Acyl-CoA thioesterase (Salinirubellus salinus), 164 residues
Amino acid sequence: MSNATATLATSRTEMTELLLPNETNNLGRALGGTVLHWMDLCAAVAAMRFSGRQCVTASMDHTDFLSPIDLGEVVELDAYVFRTGRTSLDCRVSVHAEDPKGGETNRRKTTTSFFTFVALDDEGHPTGVPELVCETETEEALRERAIEEQREQLATVVARLEDD
C-alpha cells in the first residue's frame, strides 16, 4: 500500500456512552478500565477506517484521569489517526463527560491519550498502511495538536519518573 493515501477525516470516529451501574466503582464513578476499554474501541475503529484493514492495539500512552465520570453521565469519545508508519497508525483519543440534564454547558474533559495500532493482512501479519494526508487547514491543525499534546504528555511522564 505504499502509494495509497487516506485523510485524517476518513478516520474520524465519535462514540457516545451512558455510564451505567455495572461500569462504576463503589463511589458511583466510572471504572478506569471501562473508560480505557471505550477509548481502545474508539481508536480501533478510527485505525480500521483509515487503513481499511483489521488493526490491533500495539500500545497506549500514559493516561491521566482529570475528572471523574459519575453514574448517569453521558460520555463522548473522539478519535482520529494523526500519524502513520509503515504498518502502524497513531490515534489521539479524547474523552468528555456531561450531565445530560445540564446540557453542554457542563461538558468537561476527562482524559486524552494516544494509541498505536498495527494493521494486519488477511493472514494476520503486519501490512502497509496508507500515508496520512491532511486536506484542510482544520485537519492539519488537528494533526499538529495531537503531535504537540503527545510530546507534552511524554515530557510530563519523563519528569515524573525523574522525580521518583
Observations:
- The longest strand covers residues 108-120.
- The chain has one domain: 5-163.
- Strands lie at 5-7, 13-18, 54-60, 74-84, 88-98, 108-120, 131-133.
- DSSP finds three helices and seven strands in the chain.
